Amino acid sequence: MSKHKWLYFWGLVIAIILIICYRSLPPNTSLVTIKLSGWGGSPVEQKLLKQVLQDFEAKHPTIKVKYEVISDQYMDVIKTRLIGEAAPDVFYLDALEAPFLMSQNVLEPLDIYIKPQFDLADFEENLLNSFKYKNHIYGFPKDYSTLALFYNKKAFTKAGITNPPTTWDELRLFSQKLTGKLNKYGFGESPELARQSYKIKAFDGELIDKNDYAAFASEASLQGLNLVIDQYRQDKTSALKSDVGASSGSDMFGQGKVSMVIEGNWAIPYLQETFPQIDFATAEVPKINNKKGTMVYTVAYVMNKQTKHKKAAWELISYLTSKEGMEKWTGKGFALPTRKSVAEKLGYDQDDLRSALVAGVDYATPWQVGEYPAAIVNNFDNQFLSALLGEQPLNQAMLRAQNNANQQIKMME
């Protein structure tokens, strides 16, 4: 066959394929492009998400997804675009930021799109509740992490400790035994409110009142926070990352500066890849005041109320948070699934390192502090660190933080 006949033949084949593909689409169907925005994760996570999006497009040939990473000042960018009506169709929303956006009428309620096969009851209730506002659901959580105790098995053996602590009193006692042995300190502390909220809750303290004003300066709240102050200043068996030249709690644990830290699921792949020599295990966060407690952090997919492609946007959200999509996204262990059936199928409740994290989801304190989180978080973090360093009494620091936060909130209302 001549060259010209070959070209003609293959041109004809391609034309036939295109016609078949075109005819396979429903009548009056056109290609829709929707934008999905999120923040960047590790290269492995980014590659995994792109694979899931490719699977979605293969199953939805009329929808094209344009994925955008906003690497800096994520929420500021999203809020600015929402005001300017240039926000993406679908985007990540952290539980911490959700109350404000849900109250501003800029998100599409997702209740009307839910069908029985979506199996709403399969979601962990404690996670789904973070995205409910005035009897509407505005987002479906894509993954989560609680906190668990990470401990150095070699350090425990050297100190003659056979089991992880189950109470905070035991944690302090073990910290004393561990300090100065294999590691310089027994425990690595993260003083931010994002890591301290469950200690406040352990004594029935509150972070905010019913009007979303700061309320963490009560006597009950101070009882939980004093545990941190006493261990750091009196026992001298805990350390901050700045004390040991580390970048995070996971880093000071990996470097061998501390024998125990309380971290999330993100620490597992980080430690395995960065510090493969560390032989570590996990356990549930020790009880405080005879109560189980931990934190839970979660992120949802939400829909921009102004999107012109609501049907396509819902198709994307429902696929990414479906049993199939979630299994693909969380199957590598970089994130934990928010659907109970997926967690059970992947066996994370039996996983040596992740079972302690999964166990905490039912009793965890959600990382959420009302509609004005920045004022509350920033003032707490600054003043609590000052008290931890001995620059002022704890009660004075918390009262100052609470008053400053509430003054700022009143100005923003």
From TrEMBL:
Which positions, given as ranges, span the membrane? 7-25
Q: Which GO terms describe its biological process?
A: maltodextrin transmembrane transport; maltose transport
Question: Which GO cellular component term is one of those annotated?
Answer: ATP-binding cassette (ABC) transporter complex, substrate-binding subunit-containing
Q: Does the keyword Transmembrane helix apply?
A: yes
Cite the GO molecular-function annotations of the record.
maltose binding
A Pfam cross-reference name: SBP_bac_1
Q: Could you list this entry's UniProt keywords, alphabetically sorted.
A: Membrane, Signal, Transmembrane, Transmembrane helix, Transport
Gene3D superfamilies associated with the record? Periplasmic binding protein-like II
Q: Which CDD domains match?
A: PBP2_UgpB
The Swiss-Prot or TrEMBL record describes its family as follows: Belongs to the bacterial solute-binding protein 1 family.
Q: Which PANTHER family match?
A: MALTOSE-BINDING PERIPLASMIC PROTEIN (PTHR30061), MALTOSE_MALTODEXTRIN-BINDING PERIPLASMIC PROTEIN (PTHR30061:SF50)
Name listed for the protein in its UniProt record: ABC transporter substrate-binding protein
